[in-house]
Amino acid sequence: MLTFSDLRGEQRPTADLPLFDAPATLRTFDSPEFRGIEFYEVEAKSILNRLPAASRMPFEWTINTYRGCSHACRYCQSGDTPVLMADGRTKPLAEVRVGDAIYGTVFDGKYRRYVTTQVLAHWQTVKPAYRVTLEDGTRLVASGDHRFLTNRGWKHVTGTEHGWHRRPHLTVNNKLMGTGQFALPPKDGPEYRRGYLCGMIRGDGMLRSATYPRPGGAPWQSHQFRLALVDPEALQRTRAYLAKLDVGTFEFVFQKAVGARKQLNAIRCGGRRSVAAIREIVAWPHTASAEWSKGFLAGIFDAEGSYNDNGTLRICNTDQVIVDQITSCLRRFDFSFVVEKRNLSRAKPVTYVRVLGGQREHLRFFHTVDPAITRKRTIEGFAIKNNAPLRVVSIEALGFEMPMFDITTGTGDFIANGVVSHNCFARPSHTYLNFDAGEDFERKVVVKVNAAEVLRRELRRPSWQGAHVAMGTNTDPYQRCEGRYRLTRGVLEVLRDFRNPCSVLTKSPLLTRDLDLFEELAETAGFSASLSIGTLDEEVWRRTEPGTPHPRARIAAVRRLRQAGIPCGVLIAPILPRISDSQGGVHALAGARLPGAGGGVPAPVPGRERAQGDPAGDRRPRRGGQAPPPDRAGGDEQPARGAPAHSPSRGACRAGGDPALPGLRLTRPTRRLRAAAHLARSTPVSWRSRRAAPPLRRRPGPSRSPSGRGRRGGAGPAAAAAAVRGPRRRARPAGRGTRPPWR
User: Fold this and answer.
1) What is the 3-state secondary structure (H, E, C) of 308-373?
2) Is the pTM higher than 0.85?
3) Tens digits of per-residue pLDDT, 601-646?
4) Protein fold of 190-377
5) For residues 119 and 115, what is the distance between their CA atoms, to the nearest angstrom?
6) CA separation (Å) from 35 to 125, 480, 545, 654?
7) Which among 92, 242, 183, 138 is positioned nearest to 369, based on CA atoms?
8) How many Å from the N-terminal Cα to the C-terminal Cα in the chain?
9) CA 198, 204, 205, 208 torsion: positive or negative?
10) SS3 state at 392
11) Which of 446, 492, 627, 742 has an alpha carbon within 20 to 30 A of 118's alpha carbon?
């Protein structure tokens, strides 16, 4: 029987990869676990990666021996699904590209609001298709795993109420969040262009012909056209549309920027023939077509319209003929509006036409007529109000597979055909190597074969100060190919030789192979391990992490590490809203009891861990100013490293006892104080977070000591809490000239 170490693999021609000087050796293996996966063996120039300060991570240095992984999930939609871009227009999902600016959402504590974000990755796959029909006629084609935001949280397209397929899913009468189906954009044809020019030039242009007497000669006729605007989009569109109708113009600066006023640019032309052609273009048609009406509304909105932060869309003008044309076009497309007159005392009162219906109708207006000025059609910061008719009418399986697309965004979601749609993350880093973030992320793994040698060279540098190194922050250091390459073990051996503190985050129980190294690191440098376990639900696990080991196997790995005395915890992540945060998800995982670990599963912060009950925290030998502060006199005896730390039970506190200090009778306020202190002790935190934490204070009033003689008769519960809490003083750095302990 072949094992990972027995596989030799087939070497293929080399390939050039960005970020690496030497060509990569391409290798494949015949094992079923590696079928269809290509490994690019490269020689890295450096292995230690420094995180920017803006990352706000509890560690500064990371190591990733592999790039690419097979653990990622997918939630996809059909390629023709329109996505709301940052300029207010839509684009099919298949045509969205990395770097495009689109709309996502963020939750501010009360409302979910639209914000501009960027596309970080884009990929394609093939999955069974389902069609979701909404009350307003919106039709969404997506895979069964895709999630949409409803008024009751994120829900998959398909699922069941019981059994292995149980998960939150859409049902009839669920209501989706958003504005509803996007309107189709207008066709950029001759009728639309004439309508746009009519609205723009009649609304904000100057078009005149005048005759001036000339002394001693014939009268002089002047023909002028000029259009001055702040926004260049409308000016360039007008100039381009006139050029297609054989009217040439040239652009100039009409007014330079002064103070808070922006610069005004303008286009103009002269001559009887050009001005006569423009007059013919902007003439009122005998019968306005639908495309002409769309163009007219777009032009008059660019010229005289506004859309403010309060969500008010209106168009103003003093010419009643233009106002009548505006209202006629709005009626044609079933927009509700009101007409308001202001400044009635003036010779030409201003008339406002205000479009009703809220954000849903305003987006329909923008998509139907397509104004040129993006500044006037932004919805940045607007709240998503659930007043649109978006109840689910039907969910149908189409019975065939079709190409599906998905994207990664900065906010974790995007607006797909008027509803909020979830997306995936974690793939964009693969695009740095000219690989795509879809299939390539799972099928093309970059292997840094010289990781251990490069790390040994970097740790020898005099500038290296022995900072904590976190492994597994981007890709899993114990993914399946680690059984073949054993690079992570080599890196750990180097860190052990240099007595450098480190931590490992993984989803694989393969890390128990290196238990001997973990024990040495924990004794000499400082080490902790964390396993990522998002759920114990097998169906959720199979659908979201199809390439990872079984969650129960990871729980068994945690048990083995804790029994060996290795500081180990569980990161319950990712928590999928209304999918894995149910009673069968997070609650079952948080309540999992690990023999030798004592109670629930803790979650230490990588790089800031402390061994359970160890006030020193760091196992590296220290001298001089770096020596840890001594334990306070009279404090409790500290348990051995890796010993279980039990939280005080409610029954014990209610009865007046304390599980950590037997025989101590506490008053009710002091019981809560001790419970909080003991919980803080049992949770691994860093010296910095302990120093920044506010001191525990007792409520004012009489207090009794364990001996019952008041404050002077004994140490008292506050002193006991301080003893449990441990020393607050932070270790000082080594003085000048002191030999670092990790040398």
Assistant:
1) CCCCCEEEEECCHHHHHHHHHHHHHCCCCEEEEEECCCCCCCEEEEEECCHHHHHHHHHHHHCCCC
2) no
3) 444 434 333 333 333 334 444 433 333 444 433 333 333 333 333 3
4) Endonuclease I-creI (3.10.28)
5) 13
6) 18, 12, 18, 59
7) 183
8) 44
9) positive
10) strand
11) 446
Would the CA dihedral through 699, 705, 709, 714 be positive or negative?
negative
In three-state secondary structure terms, 446 is strand
- Tell me 166's DSSP state: B
Q: At what angle do helices 515-524 and 551-563 cross, to 10 degrees?
A: 50
Say whether pLDDT at 544 is over 80.
Answer: no
Q: How many CB atoms lie within 10 A of CB 603?
A: 16
Cα–Cα dist 429/76, whole Å: 20
Per the CB < 8 A criterion, the answer to whether 142 and 78 are in contact is: yes
d(CA 459, CA 96): 43
Q: Give me the residue label for tokens 């450098």.
A: 500
3-class secondary structure, 641: coil
Rounded to whole angstroms, how far apart are CA atoms 424 and 439? 13
Please give the Cα distance from 30 to 21 (Å, whole number): 29
Per-residue confidence (pLDDT) for residue 299, from 0 to 100: 95
Token representation of residue 160 = 């069941």
Q: Which residues of 678-696 are buried (b: 16+ CB within 10 A; e: fewer)?
A: bebbbbbbbbeebeeeeee
The first and second tokens of residue 24, run together, are 């990569």
Residue-wise pLDDT tens digits, 339-358: 998 877 777 889 999 999 88
Provide the edge-to-edge strand list for the sheet that holds 313-317: 305-307, 313-317, 350-355, 337-342
Q: Please, which residues have CB within 8 angstroms of residue 516's CB and are 6 or more apart in sequence?
A: none
Break the chain into its structural domains and give their ranges. 1-72+446-500, 77-179+384-425, 190-377, 504-623+641-645, 648-686+716-728
Q: Give the residue from 117, 124, 70 showing the smallest Cα distance to 93.
A: 124
Question: What would be the CATH architecture of the domain defined by 77-179+384-425?
Answer: Beta Complex (2.170)
Distance, CA of 417 to CA of 165 (rounded, Å)? 27
